[in-house]
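Final report, Chapter 2: Outcomes

The project's central promise was a pipeline that accepts a single protein chain and returns its three-dimensional structure in a standardized token representation, suitable for archiving and comparison. That pipeline is now operational. To close this chapter, we reproduce one record exactly as it appears in the project archive, with the input sequence first and the structure output second.
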Amino acid sequence: MAILFALLFYIMSILIKNAKQNYFIGIRTPWTLHSEIVWNKTHALASKLIPILSIFCLIGLIFPNYLSILLFIPLILIFGYIIFYSYFEFKKIK
């Protein structure tokens, strides 16, 4: 299962990198949907951070008892950072 999650996060980072501004795919916060500049910056950052989750999933193969911790804590931290980043980028351009 950890290998599938690692693959999912890796593919997701590739898709996010190439996503144009829309209401269906990507990081859809009010700030990214309002500004194409914020959308592009947020998705560029996300495409670099999300593959880190793949690495944590693969580390979870070595430590299977800690897989949930190795997956969910970085997941919350990375996506929390991405959301706050998009907000602060929006405030910069306003």
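Archive annotation: The longest helix spans residues 36-62.
This record, like all others produced under the grant, will remain available to the consortium after the project formally closes.
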